[in-house]
Amino acid sequence: MLSLLFLVSTIIVSVTADGYNCAGNYLINPPLDLNEPYYYPEGWREGMEPAKYAGSQMCNWQINVPEGLYATVTFYKNTESESGINCVYPNGQQEYIEDKELNPYIFTTPQFQVNLRVSDKQGEFSFKVVWSTCKIEVR
What we know:
Residues 1-17 form the signal peptide. By secondary structure, the chain is mostly beta strands. It is 12% helix and 42% strand. It is built from one helix and ten strands.
Protein backbone atom coordinates (compact mmCIF):
# COMPACT_ATOMS: atom_id res chain seq x y z
CA MET A 1 0.00 0.00 0.00
CA LEU A 2 2.81 2.38 0.87
CA SER A 3 4.49 1.74 -2.48
CA LEU A 4 1.23 2.55 -4.31
CA LEU A 5 0.95 5.86 -2.44
CA PHE A 6 4.56 6.67 -3.34
CA LEU A 7 3.93 5.87 -7.02
CA VAL A 8 0.82 8.08 -7.19
CA SER A 9 2.57 11.01 -5.47
CA THR A 10 5.56 10.65 -7.84
CA ILE A 11 3.25 10.81 -10.87
CA ILE A 12 1.52 13.93 -9.52
CA VAL A 13 4.85 15.68 -8.90
CA SER A 14 6.04 14.69 -12.39
CA VAL A 15 2.94 16.13 -14.10
CA THR A 16 3.26 19.37 -12.13
CA ALA A 17 6.97 19.67 -12.97
CA ASP A 18 6.29 19.14 -16.69
CA GLY A 19 3.71 21.93 -16.80
CA TYR A 20 0.18 21.96 -18.15
CA ASN A 21 -0.93 20.94 -21.62
CA CYS A 22 -3.66 23.20 -22.93
CA ALA A 23 -5.13 20.57 -25.26
CA GLY A 24 -6.19 22.39 -28.41
CA ASN A 25 -9.02 24.87 -28.88
CA TYR A 26 -11.27 26.50 -26.31
CA LEU A 27 -14.47 28.50 -26.75
CA ILE A 28 -15.08 30.74 -23.74
CA ASN A 29 -18.32 32.62 -23.05
CA PRO A 30 -18.93 35.11 -20.26
CA PRO A 31 -20.39 33.66 -17.07
CA LEU A 32 -23.98 34.41 -16.07
CA ASP A 33 -22.59 36.32 -13.09
CA LEU A 34 -20.25 38.96 -14.54
CA ASN A 35 -18.60 39.29 -11.11
CA GLU A 36 -16.96 35.89 -11.67
CA PRO A 37 -13.72 36.17 -13.69
CA TYR A 38 -12.47 33.44 -16.00
CA TYR A 39 -9.02 32.15 -15.06
CA TYR A 40 -6.69 29.99 -17.13
CA PRO A 41 -5.49 27.48 -16.20
CA GLU A 42 -8.20 26.25 -13.88
CA GLY A 43 -7.10 26.57 -10.26
CA TRP A 44 -4.72 29.47 -10.96
CA ARG A 45 -5.51 32.83 -9.31
CA GLU A 46 -3.97 36.29 -9.18
CA GLY A 47 -1.20 36.57 -6.64
CA MET A 48 0.20 33.19 -7.69
CA GLU A 49 3.15 32.79 -10.04
CA PRO A 50 2.02 32.13 -13.62
CA ALA A 51 1.40 28.42 -14.19
CA LYS A 52 4.07 26.41 -16.01
CA TYR A 53 3.16 25.07 -19.42
CA ALA A 54 4.75 22.11 -21.17
CA GLY A 55 6.70 22.76 -24.36
CA SER A 56 5.79 21.71 -27.91
CA GLN A 57 2.12 22.63 -28.06
CA MET A 58 -0.37 24.85 -29.87
CA CYS A 59 -3.56 26.13 -28.29
CA ASN A 60 -6.22 28.69 -29.11
CA TRP A 61 -8.77 30.39 -26.89
CA GLN A 62 -11.66 32.11 -28.66
CA ILE A 63 -13.22 34.38 -26.07
CA ASN A 64 -16.63 35.76 -26.91
CA VAL A 65 -17.61 39.30 -26.03
CA PRO A 66 -21.37 39.75 -26.60
CA GLU A 67 -22.90 43.04 -27.71
CA GLY A 68 -23.15 45.44 -24.76
CA LEU A 69 -20.10 44.01 -22.98
CA TYR A 70 -16.35 44.47 -23.10
CA ALA A 71 -13.62 42.19 -21.74
CA THR A 72 -10.61 43.21 -19.67
CA VAL A 73 -7.77 40.70 -19.80
CA THR A 74 -4.58 40.57 -17.76
CA PHE A 75 -1.86 38.24 -19.01
CA TYR A 76 0.83 36.79 -16.74
CA LYS A 77 3.78 35.46 -18.74
CA ASN A 78 7.39 34.53 -18.03
CA THR A 79 9.48 32.82 -20.70
CA GLU A 80 13.20 32.36 -21.28
CA SER A 81 13.02 33.48 -24.89
CA GLU A 82 10.61 34.96 -27.41
CA SER A 83 7.64 32.66 -27.50
CA GLY A 84 4.61 32.52 -29.72
CA ILE A 85 1.96 33.80 -27.34
CA ASN A 86 -0.22 36.49 -28.86
CA CYS A 87 -3.70 37.94 -28.81
CA VAL A 88 -5.82 38.81 -31.83
CA TYR A 89 -8.22 41.76 -31.79
CA PRO A 90 -11.66 41.61 -33.46
CA ASN A 91 -10.20 43.46 -36.50
CA GLY A 92 -7.52 40.76 -36.96
CA GLN A 93 -4.63 42.82 -35.57
CA GLN A 94 -2.19 40.65 -33.61
CA GLU A 95 -0.10 41.66 -30.64
CA TYR A 96 2.56 39.57 -28.95
CA ILE A 97 2.23 39.36 -25.21
CA GLU A 98 5.36 40.55 -23.42
CA ASP A 99 6.84 39.07 -20.25
CA LYS A 100 5.71 40.66 -17.00
CA GLU A 101 3.42 43.13 -18.82
CA LEU A 102 0.59 43.49 -16.33
CA ASN A 103 -1.27 46.30 -18.08
CA PRO A 104 -4.69 44.95 -19.02
CA TYR A 105 -5.93 44.60 -22.58
CA ILE A 106 -9.48 45.72 -23.44
CA PHE A 107 -11.48 43.82 -26.08
CA THR A 108 -14.88 44.56 -27.60
CA THR A 109 -17.52 42.59 -29.45
CA PRO A 110 -17.68 40.06 -31.02
CA GLN A 111 -14.60 38.14 -29.77
CA PHE A 112 -10.85 38.02 -29.39
CA GLN A 113 -8.37 35.18 -29.50
CA VAL A 114 -5.35 34.11 -27.51
CA ASN A 115 -2.84 31.85 -29.26
CA LEU A 116 -0.09 29.81 -27.66
CA ARG A 117 2.40 28.21 -30.05
CA VAL A 118 5.55 27.17 -28.26
CA SER A 119 8.65 25.12 -29.06
CA ASP A 120 10.07 22.45 -26.81
CA LYS A 121 10.91 24.92 -24.03
CA GLN A 122 8.69 25.31 -21.00
CA GLY A 123 7.47 28.68 -19.83
CA GLU A 124 4.84 30.24 -17.60
CA PHE A 125 1.54 31.64 -18.81
CA SER A 126 -1.79 32.36 -17.13
CA PHE A 127 -4.53 34.89 -17.72
CA LYS A 128 -7.66 36.40 -16.23
CA VAL A 129 -10.71 37.69 -18.13
CA VAL A 130 -13.37 39.98 -16.63
CA TRP A 131 -16.45 40.93 -18.64
CA SER A 132 -18.21 44.23 -17.89
CA THR A 133 -21.27 46.04 -19.12
CA CYS A 134 -20.51 48.71 -21.70
CA LYS A 135 -22.31 51.89 -20.76
CA ILE A 136 -22.59 54.24 -23.71
CA GLU A 137 -24.20 57.60 -23.15
CA VAL A 138 -25.68 59.26 -26.23
CA ARG A 139 -26.32 62.99 -26.03
